[in-house]
Write a structure and sequence with these properties.
Elements: H1 5-13, E1 18-22, E2 28-31, E3 34-37, H2 45-54, H3 58-67, E4 69-76, E5 80-89, E6 92-100, H4 107-110, H5 115-119, E7 125-130, H6 137-151, E8 155-160, E9 173-178, H7 186-193, E10 200-203, H8 209-220, E11 224-229, H9 234-244, H10 250-260, E12 261-271, E13 278-286, H11 289-296, H12 303-309, H13 318-327, H14 333-339, H15 343-347
Parallel strand pairs: 7-11, 7-12, 8-9, 8-10, 10-11
Antiparallel strand pairs: 1-2, 1-6, 2-3, 4-5, 5-6, 12-13
Helix pairs in contact: 7-8, 8-10, 10-11
Length: 360
């Protein structure tokens, strides 16, 4: 057993999502979204580097020492997998480990809207899950792929950096590929995947123009593609994709995206007040004919109206989703107010509404 494994056992016992091990500081756990220091000595750079290198493959140590940054996955059999990031900072080495549970929760267990299950049965197109880092995008995608695995008989290829949730093939064939270990880049793996007879492709993150282009092309040519972006609303996601392309290409990509987009899920994590844990609160945009026309005609400012009137298709705005969880007693009024879009709608639920200096 590696010396560092004791921190992961503590993490598991405390139900923490992340552990921060930073030279010059005490270890820190993230529990239900909050950082809490561990009663342990301040970490020394040499001691921490030794602990970290004990679990790191030789080739990845070389990469880290050349670049100062490193991503990979680490697994303790019977406990969990971890997404790992090493970095250099002013006091020496630092590392953040995020726990990836061995059990993949279903859409129902996660409390996601029922329409999410139907996305797993789409024949083609692209579905994008968005939100800030740590908002549960990977967990949502894992639930959708699990739904695929149970209900379809298809070939699924995942391209990730690093591999997070590992799916055991049930009705589907699932091939996991890790950037750096099994392929050079997202774009090279995505390009190669089109020759590997896939039905469904999961792209862990659309990081650059080439990856975005290939993902949209794969969806347009008859594949079902799932991916993520770090955006905060459905409308902004569409604009972000289009703005990545050179001006001369934007009209064409707008048309292609309008034809291939199927849904945008924009989510954020909230602390639960009815039980321990957190819950994903999600804006859901379904690409109806009207929504596709808005994208094609450069009228994405109208998407918010489509979200408000599209409930029969399974759509919901972020504020409506927050309001549903607030009324059910799952989340606190203060967090609902802090993360909502329309502050006035939630102000009355607070005993002392805080002044918002950004709206002055």
């Amino acid at each position: 057993m590696a010396k560092i494994d004791a921190f992961f056992k503590l993490m598991n016992e405390q139900k923490a999502s992340d552990v921060h091990l930073i030279s010059g500081q005490q270890p820190v756990l993230r529990i239900r979204g909050d950082l809490e220091r561990v009663k342990y000595k301040v970490l020394d750079d040499n001691e921490l580097r030794s602990m970290l290198y004990e679990i790191t493959p030789e080739d990845k140590i070389k990469v880290f020492e050349e670049t100062g940054d490193l991503d990979f996955a680490y697994e303790i059999p019977g406990l969990a997998r971890y997404r790992v990031n090493f970095f250099l900072q002013i006091n020496g080495i630092g590392a953040v480990f995020r726990e990836i549970p061995n059990e993949i929760l279903t859409v129902e267990q996660l409390g996601l809207p029922p329409v999410i299950s139907r996305l797993a049965l789409l024949p083609r197109g692209i579905v994008i899950v968005t939100g800030p880092t740590g908002s549960g995008k990977s967990t949502t995608l894992a639930a959708i792929i699990d739904e695929v695995n149970r209900k379809r008989k298809d070939h699924v290829i995942t391209i990730e950096d690093p591999i997070e949730f590992v799916h055991t093939s049930k009705n589907c064939i699932i091939n996991h590929r890790e950037v750096g270990a099994h392929t050079r880049t997202f774009s090279s793996a995505l390009r190669a995947s089109l020759r590997e007879d896939p039905d469904i492709i999961l792209v862990g993150e659309m990081r650059d123009l080439e990856t975005i282009r290939l993902a949209i092309e794969a969806a347009a040519t008859g594949h079902l593609v799932f991916s993520t972006l770090h955006t905060q609303s459905a409308a902004k996601t569409i604009d972000r994709i289009i703005e990545v392309f050179p001006v001369g290409e934007q009209a064409q990509i707008r048309s292609t995206l309008a034809d291939s987009i199927r849904a945008v899920l924009s989510q954020s994590l909230f602390k639960r007040i009815d039980m321990k844990g957190r819950i994903a609160v999600m804006e859901v945009l379904i690409a109806t004919q009207a929504v596709r026309a808005m994208i094609r005609e450069s009228k994405t400012h109208q998407i918010q109206s489509a979200l408000q009137t599209g409930k029969k298709y399974g759509m919901q705005t972020l504020d409506d989703a927050i309001f549903t969880h607030l009324k059910a007693g799952r989340i606190s009024p203060s967090e609902a107010y802090m993360k909502c879009v329309d502050k006035e709608k939630f102000r009355s639920y607070l005993t002392e509404p805080p002044p918002d200096f950004t709206e002055v």
